[in-house]
Amino acid sequence: MKLHRHGPITEINMTPFVDIVLVILIIFLLTATVMMPRTFSICLPQATQADRLEKAVVIISIDQEGRIAINGIKVNQDNDFNQIFTAQVQGKEPQAVIAADKHTRHGRLIEVIDRLKCLQVQRIGIEVDQP
């Protein structure tokens, strides 16, 4: 080790610098291969009048008595179903998830699915518990 008594230290230890550069290079190579979603470059066209498709997930709960709630809002009469559902969707593409009690009548579940189909809901899911 040299002692510098008469001036500033002008030597730089390059070993830590090379180690850091190699680590950064490895990280870059790994992330570059993972983040390659397309096999070739695509330049998408732009449109000013395109509709933005946003989905509104609406949860419809049915208890064992057959009472219905839409996103926590109780439906008092069957006529209110369409109004409450439409208010929850607010112009977005509707997507419904039905959470029915296991003792709910099968016919009541089919009535709800039929109402959703009349409201043009294309995606309907049924919530279940997983073991």
Automatic annotation (TrEMBL):
<keyword id="KW-0472">Membrane</keyword>
<dbReference type="InterPro" id="IPR003400">
    <property type="entry name" value="ExbD"/>
</dbReference>
<dbReference type="GO" id="GO:0005886">
    <property type="term" value="C:plasma membrane"/>
</dbReference>
<feature type="transmembrane region" description="Helical">
    <location>
        <begin position="12"/>
        <end position="36"/>
    </location>
</feature>
<protein>
    <submittedName>
        <fullName>Biopolymer transport protein ExbD/TolR</fullName>
    </submittedName>
</protein>
<keyword id="KW-0813">Transport</keyword>
<comment type="similarity">
    <text>Belongs to the ExbD/TolR family.</text>
</comment>
<dbReference type="GO" id="GO:0022857">
    <property type="term" value="F:transmembrane transporter activity"/>
</dbReference>
<keyword id="KW-1133">Transmembrane helix</keyword>
<keyword id="KW-0653">Protein transport</keyword>
<keyword id="KW-0812">Transmembrane</keyword>
<keyword id="KW-1003">Cell membrane</keyword>
<dbReference type="GO" id="GO:0015031">
    <property type="term" value="P:protein transport"/>
</dbReference>
<dbReference type="Pfam" id="PF02472">
    <property type="entry name" value="ExbD"/>
</dbReference>
